[in-house]
Write a structure and sequence with these properties.
The chain is of the alpha/beta class and about 450 residues long. It folds into two domains: about 190 residues, Vaccinia Virus protein VP39 (Rossmann fold, 3-Layer(aba) Sandwich), CATH 3.40.50.150; about 240 residues, Spore Coat Polysaccharide Biosynthesis Protein SpsA, Chain A (Alpha-Beta Complex). The strands form two sheets. A seven-stranded mixed β-sheet has the order 3-2-1-4-5-7-6. A seven-stranded mixed β-sheet has the order 10-9-8-11-13-12-14, with helices on both faces. α10 links the parallel β9 and β10. α13 runs parallel beside α16 and α14 packs across α15. The longest helix has 21 residues. The protein starts with a helix and ends with a helix.
């Protein structure tokens, strides 16, 4: 069982630099975690000594740990049921961790908690019988009161007893929706609820362009409206119309604004966007479609939401506010509803729009997002799924901001070949579900 937990934690902890582990005889579950340094507080020094040749360091004094807690990017509590005062401990942690730190809490389900205690009494097994008896609903309230926000809650393991091959297969099956209700463990990922964001952050707006010559002129009126510290990066993706000349004219006309033009690779929209992100110099990345079907005002509202909350990733949604009559084709509309439903299952959280081109996040998170998208093995031509799934994989808080979806003023939508694209997107979702929820 410990080995399976260790594999699952290794997927949650993404290349940690400094991790703190609080255990109760279960240090083995850190075995697969990739971290430059792991600091350990265990109930018995003998347990720690078994791992002394690895990159572990003992937490000798909890006061010293609290003084250095802001240095940690992950803190794992694998002993939550044995702590004397859960609320106070988590409240203290919630006050002093850094904004990017992730707290991971491992707890037993109420059903299994009762069964295990009953089994210990009947079999007279060793180990403490008195421990905290909290269902997840109670723990969730403690998290909220401790200035901690729940990002993910995963349920794993139905068979804690090792039977070669059989245990593995059954445990994998019970990670599926509905069945996972019966699993033994909750693994909850938390982040600080109240964060301090600077108001002086530079924004990079990435605008991929492919044959958008008639839309470029519209930016001349819109750009001056966004009264922020912004650089605009227009990526001409080997257009075969007059897009590039129009962009150069726009840059000349608005020479008092920071406008840059880069050459996209001419492969697909996602590669064009990613190239722009690499060129960008801002603290915040805002991806914006060249058809201007989302207003600049809504984009600014979404940027402000990111800066004023503890969100890490803004996914703008066109499916909340009623759309203009001809803003979206029926096939795209119903396809979006379907994939929003699929992502809601994948994320265990309500998602209403997956394909809106306006997405906003911090540049510091880009490398981790990109690295995961490279592992998927199925190319996302548009980039929307890559970004959302990469953000979820890296335990970023994803928030949706409703925007009003406008009808295209010029040109036609590039979202054609609906069936072919839908099949590709479906394969990405299925593959991601396997990698995030099933594969160790």
């Amino acid at each position: 069982m410990f080995n399976e937990i260790s594999f699952f934690l290794s997927n949650l902890v993404n290349k940690s630099k400094k991790l703190a582990f609080f255990g109760c005889g279960n240090l083995l579950i850190t075995k697969k975690i990739l971290s430059d340094k792991i600091y350990v507080n265990e109930v018995d020094d003998l347990i720690f000594d078994e791992f002394k040749n690895q990159n572990y360091e003992k937490i000798e004094n909890l006061s010293d740990f609290e003084n250095k807690v802001s240095e940690f990017d992950h803190i794992v509590f694998a002993d939550i049921e044995h702590q004397k005062n859960i609320s106070t401990n988590l409240l203290n942690i919630g006050k002093i961790i850094n904004d990017d730190c992730r707290v991971i809490v491992i707890s037993k389900s109420l059903i299994w908690h009762t069964f295990i205690n009953w089994y210990k009494r009947i079999s007279k097994k060793s180990g403490p019988l008195r421990n905290n008896y909290l269902p997840f609903s109670n723990l969730k309230q403690i998290f909220i009161n401790s200035n901690l926000d729940v990002l993910r809650n995963e349920k794993i393991i139905i068979m804690p007893f090792h039977i070669p091959y059989i245990s593995k297969i059954i445990n994998l099956i019970f990670r599926l929706p509905i069945l996972n209700f019966f699993c033994l463990l909750n693994i909850t990922v938390l982040k600080k609820k109240i964060v301090e964001n600077s108001n002086d952050q530079k924004i990079s707006v990435i605008i991929p362009c492919k044959n958008e010559e008639d839309n470029i002129k519209l930016f001349k009126e819109e750009i001056p409206k966004l009264n922020l510290k912004v650089e605009y990066l227009f990526g001409d993706d080997k257009s075969d119309d007059d897009t590039l000349n129009k962009l150069n004219q726009l840059k000349e006309d608005l020479n008092n604004h920071d406008i840059k033009i880069y050459n996209g690779p001419g492969i697909c929209k996602s590669e064009n966007v990613y190239t722009g992100i690499e060129y960008s110099t801002g603290d915040i990345i805002a991806i914006y479609d060249a058809d201007l079907t989302v207003s600049f005002n809504d984009m600014k509202k979404s940027i402000d939401y990111l800066k004023q909350t503890n969100s890490d990733f803004i996914n703008c949604s066109r499916m909340v506010i009623p759309q203009r009559a001809n803003a979206m084709k029926n096939s795209n509309y119903f396809g979006n509803i379907f994939f929003a439903f699929m992502f809601s299952i994948l994320f265990k959280n309500k998602i209403t729009d997956t394909l809106c081109g306006t997405k906003i996040f911090y540049k510091k998170d880009w490398l981790n997002i990109k690295n995961y998208s490279n592992e998927l093995g199925i190319k996302d031509l548009w980039g929307d799924f890559d970004l959302l799934i990469g953000a979820y994989k890296n335990n970023l808080k994803i928030s949706e901001v409703p925007v009003f979806y406008l009808e295209r003023k010029e040109e036609e939508t590039k979202m054609t070949n609906v069936i072919k694209n839908a099949l590709r997107m479906l394969m990405i979702v299925i593959n991601s579900y396997y990698r995030l929820r099933i594969k160790n």
